[in-house]
Structures are given as structure tokens and as C-alpha cells.
Amino acid sequence: MKKFFLLTFSLSHFLTFLLSYFLTFSLSHFLTFSLSYFLTFSLLHGAGTTSANFLKISIGARQIGMGESSAGLSDDVNSINYNIAGLSQLGTREFSAMHLEYLQGIKYETLSYSHPFKWGTVGLSLGYLYVNDIPKTIIDPNAYTEGWQYRETGSFGADDKTLLLGFSREIEKNIFGGLGVRYLSETLDDVNSWAVSFDVGCLYRYNKKFSFGASIQNVGTELKFIEKRERIPIIFRAGIGYRNLNGSFKTCLDFVQAIDNDLEIRTGFEYAIVRVLFLRIGYRMRGFDENYKLGYLSGLTAGVGFSLFNYNLDYGFVPYGDLGYTHRISLSGRF
User: Fold this and answer.
1) How many C-beta neighbours within 10 Å does residue 176 have?
2) Burial class of residue 28 (count of CB atoms within 10 Å of its CB; 0-12, 13-18, 19+)
3) Does the reported pTM lie above 0.90?
4) Please, how many CA atoms are within 13 Å of residue 30, restricted to the half-sphere of its CB?
5) Are 182 and 196 in contact (CB under 8 A)?
6) What is d(CA 4, CA 161) in angstroms, rounded to the nearest whole number?
7) Which of 39, 62, 190, 231 is most buried, by CB atoms within 10 Å?
8) How far, in Å, CA of 292 to CA of 253, rounded?
9) Domain for residue 34, yes or no?
């Protein structure tokens, strides 16, 4: 009952925030929004399991190299996937395409785009995760395979798709807000399910060096497979970003709370050795048990970026202990 009350409070507060979002906003709203959701999610964490967990996979090789943190910095087009309010900081059109070689042969392709107008910035994010050649088996009393009575009848595939449309604008001086609506679907062989969710974010530029951000993602309907309904993972992020005056050094610290996971602390650093070469390193503290099981080096991330004219090529590396390594490559540009 306690968790139900807290969840009801969180969702009702979220909907109220949506309605009043573009009517009035101030720093006090920003702080209230961040604190209330952080406390609510801290009490709700571990409340059951969720589906569509591909929504937890971080996007953008640059952000990956920086410990998968970006809520408080949010200074490129991939901010739509971390803190949608950051889109308003972009003065030009931007795009970013990413390819991820994930675990167990899973691949993930994403494309993000932002377009600034006088009245705000519009953003788009597409994602497609897929895996093929999964063995299809059926129970067969006449078969005997590795101690089990089943046999293979071929193979099948599975995929997840997502489309996020977002809007962001500067509400007051140095205070930015953003809203997004997402459509997502999951397919397993010939079974399909879909859901709709909302994202909301806010960002405060304290000065030219420091910024603070918070967002809540994936508040929406449930997925339904045949007769079973499953929630999608609501995620809260709050972070602090720092950049020096010439932009050669940037760092961020994020607190990330998914409704079915423990609190994660993520931090990362980016340093421009020269104007065309960037080195990145980060760490994700995902809870004692998970870091212990996978090994503490599994929390480490690293990356490198190359910049030429208005285009960037970025690489991100994430180890998962005995499970293996993942590699991300992103191509982005401004025009």
C-alpha cells in the first residue's frame, strides 16, 4: 500500500507538472521537482520488475566514455536521451548516429536529431535493438537433448523499437525545460506489444562553468504480451555539470535511479588534448552487489573522440566482467 501511494503521488505530480510546465517556471520549481522525485524514487526502488529494459541502455559514444553521465551537462544532441531540456542549449542543427555491439550478439542502432527555432528546439530520437538466430525449441516426449525432452524447430528473432519526439525551450534566463513523448514496441517472434510514455526535464545554468539538471523518463502505459502486462522502467536522473571557460575540460556527476534498480552514481571526464582529439574516462557505481558480481572494473568506461570541421567520430568502451565487452561508435555533426 505504501508503494502504491508513493507511485500514485509521483504520477499525479508528474501530470500536474506537465500541465503547468510552460505556463510558469522558476528555480524553486526546479529544486522542488528534483527533490520530490529523488525522494519518491529512493523509496520506490526495487518495486517489482519491468520490461523494455533496452530503455536503460545508454546512447551516444561520447556519453558512454564519460561514465554514461549527462543529465547535468546535456550539451549535445544526445541530451534528448538523458535530459531533454538540454536541447535548448544547442544553437545549430545537430545529428548523431550510433552503432552498438552489445552482449550475446545483440546490436543497437540509434539516430538523434535536433532543430532549433526561435520559439524553441525540436528533437527526434530513433532506436532499433535486434538479435537474430535465436533457437526455437518445442517440447517433444520422443526427443532427448542434453537431458531434456525438446527439439529445435528452427530459429526466430526479437527486436525493440523506439521513437521519441521532444520539445525544449528557455523558460527563464538560464533555466531550460523540455517535454517528450515516446512510442515503443517489442517483438518476440510473432508476438508484439507497444506502449506510450512521456519524458520531462529541466536544466539550470548557474554560470558559464556550472549547470544542474534533472529528468524523469518513461512515465506511461504498460506493455502487454498475450495476457501478461509489464511496466516499462521509469528512470530519474539528477546531475551536476562543469566546463572550463575554453571548453577543453568537462566533467559531470549523475545520480540515476530506475524504479526496479538500486541508485547508481555515475561520473565522467572529457579532456581535449588538442582541438581535434578528446580523451574520456568514467565510472558507474551500480550498487555493491552488482559491482561485486561483475567485478569493480566493470564500472569503468573509456572513450576517445576525433573532431574535424563540424563533424565528430566517437568511440566508447564498456566492460561487463565475465560477460564480455561492449563497443559503441557514434558519428555526429552540426550544420
Assistant:
1) 29
2) exposed
3) no
4) 24
5) yes
6) 29
7) 62
8) 22
9) yes
At 190, list the grid cell: 510473432
Measured CA to CA, the distance from residue 321 to residue 334 in angstroms comes to: 36
Q: How far apart are the C-alpha atoms of 55 and 195, rounded to whole Å? A: 12
**Longest Cα–Cα distance in the chain:** 73
Q: Is 26 helix (H, G, I), strand (E, B) or coil?
A: coil
Separation between Cα atoms, residue 197 and residue 234, nearest integer Å:
9
Is 219:166 a contact under the CB 8 Å cutoff? no
Q: Is a pLDDT exceeding 50 seen at residue 12? A: no
Handedness of CA 223, 229, 230, 234 (dihedral sign): positive
For residue 162, is it within any domain?
yes
Q: How many CA atoms lie within 13 A of 27 on its CB side?
A: 7
Distance from the first to the final alpha carbon of the chain: 52
Q: List, for residues 262-290, the tens digit of each pLDDT value.
A: 899 999 999 999 989 999 999 998 765 55
Cell of 250: 568537462
Q: Classify the C-alpha dihedral 292-52-196-74 as positive or negative.
A: positive
> For the chain, where are the alpha helices, taking DSSP H only?
2-20, 27-44, 61-65, 288-294
Name beta bridge partners: 99: 109, 329
Separation of alpha carbons 79 and 239, rounded Å: 12
Question: Which domain covers residue 225, as residue numbers?
Answer: 2-262
Hunting for cell 506510450 — which residue is that?
196
Cβ atoms of 239 and 212 within 8 Å: the answer is yes
Check residues 228 and 306 and name the one with the higher pLDDT. Answer: 306
The answer to whether residue 44 sits within a structural domain is: yes
Residue 253, pLDDT above cutoff 80: yes
What's the number of domains the chain is made of?
A: 1
* CA angle (75, 200, 210) in 5-degree steps: 35
Residues 186, 188: Cα–Cα separation, whole Å: 7
β-partners of residue 8 are: none
Is residue 116 a part of any domain in this protein?
Answer: yes
